[in-house]
Amino acid sequence: MPDFSNQTNRATGLRFLWLTLLLVVIDQITKIWVAAEFELYESRVLIDGLFNLTYVHNYGAAFSFLSDGGGWQRWFFTAIAIAISVVLLIWMRRNPVGLWRQNLAFSLIMAGAIGNVADRLMYGYVIDFFDVHYQGWHWPAFNVADMAITIGAALMLLEAFFDNRRDKVENGQG
Question: What does the pLDDT read at residue 60?
Answer without folding.
Answer: 67
